[in-house]
Design brief:
It is a single chain. This protein is mostly helical and 150 residues long. It is 83% helix and 0% strand. It contains six helices and no strands. The longest helix is centred in the first third of the chain and has 32 residues, at 2-33.
Amino acid sequence: MYAVILALHNIIRWLALILGIVAAVLAWLGWLRGSEWKPINRKLGTFFGISVDIQFLLGLLLYFFFSPLTRTALMDFGAAMGTPDLRFFALEHPLYMILGLVLAHLGSALPRRLQSSTAKFRSAALWTTLAVLFILLGMPWGRPIFPGMG
């Protein structure tokens, strides 16, 4: 079960990252070009948020039930902080990803409350870009790009 959930978590990260980058780029372009806010802009933010939610749920399953790394870290959290790999997966990765999740939802929800297209694009650009940056910071870059590779 661990291998399946880890593989899904690993694959869906690319979907989430691509959706986040596309949503951020289109928000920046819309803001800088003075474009009209369209349903696709709202939908991209929503789909980005959904993909991050799925990642979060898979991550929770790994963190609390299936990952041998976090199981080891949670047995002695203090000692785990002295081991870079354990510290990353027990503390740093979840922290960055939770921040990314919150920011992704702000990038999706806050523009809905604004009236002008400029304000919508500006809000989406800011929050979605920050979400993508935190997700990039928290990604385990030492892992294979796709499961079973490397």
